Amino acid sequence: MSPTVMQQADALHPALSDPKNVQYTYTDPLSEVPALISGVDASFDGSTPIIDMEGLLGPRRSEFIKQIGHACEKNGFFAVRNHGIPEMKISNMLDTARDFFHLPEEERLKFRSSDPDSLIRLVTGFQDKTRNIFVSRQSLKFHCHPVEDFKNHWPSTPPSFREKVGEYCASVRKVEVAILEAISESLGLERDYIDKLLKGHYVSINYYPACQESELDVTHGVRTHTDPTIITILMQDDVPGLQVINDDKWIDVNPIPDAVVVHVGDMLQALSNCRYKSLLHQAIVNCERERVSIASYCYPSDDSAIGPAKKLIDDDHPAIYKDFTYKEFHESMWRVKCSTAKRLDLFMAESD
Ligand code: OGA
Ligand code: NI
Hints:
Layout: H1 3-12, E1 25-26, E2 35-36, E3 50-52, H2 53-56, H3 61-74, E4 77-81, H4 87-101, H5 105-109, E5 120-123, E6 126-128, E7 133-135, E8 138-143, H6 147-150, H7 161-186, E9 198-208, E10 218-220, E11 222-225, E12 231-236, E13 242-246, E14 249-252, E15 260-264, H8 266-271, E16 281-283, E17 291-300, H9 326-335
Helix pairs in contact: 3-7, 4-7
């Protein structure tokens, strides 16, 4: 492990310098924390904060808002049960995703594009030439809100793609709005504070083939990163793979039946003035089974002002970030090559 990378990792996550916390790791030049490539020993399932969305929408709302605030601040993620997305729409979405990735390659490659602004694009697995790493995730990423404005750009094969994916996207949108309202309130902001910044959502259908024998040192699902979102809502099938950094350690966030995982993204870190931190996460691959996950990225409109909310700034809590627009952030994200966890540093407020 190169000393520079390890020193940076120590500074960011001190407990990672303790050898007993670092198992089966490698260092990735694009990240600053050593990544774990096989599951951690202890299952963390019992401790994933779980929020009941029916509770959130009922008479004890304030209690659930506190739970959400606590989970965002302490863990950076939580699972949501009773989210109201019908089971059938979830299984249709997962089946459709698998069917798409089982199509012949030439059919899928029609959607390949290197333009980050394209309305739909397929990203394929790749080998990182600087290291002996294969990043195996394939994903189809597309805009989906409102569904009617975008669905004609989506694949017409498999034939049910547009219908099934459209149904899922419309349902997940409702969860998104309810959670964002609760997050706004948990910060002491008006209920629609975040909703007013919103543009839409963008879905990434992620497909992780079962890992194969390879000449390479490491096969990874998706590397350690934060999401450039306000929040991300992740629906996983029943194959484990998601790992997150919590209390400076990697932990597995195994699928919980009928629940989705919500986590904090970079934009929420900025607008909450760092009270809620963007979650570092990754996915490992499973050598026996393919895995599918659906990430719904909730992001602001281009011209939204994303500095810390004014109500959260006072003498004891000076603004950590300056005001910037999502457009500025998005452009710099593609222009400046740095670890995703460092992207927001470019928007720090000037200190006096
Ligand atoms: C993502 C992501 C994790 C997973 O899509 O941004 O981190 O478990 N996915 O698929
Ligand atoms: Ni992610």
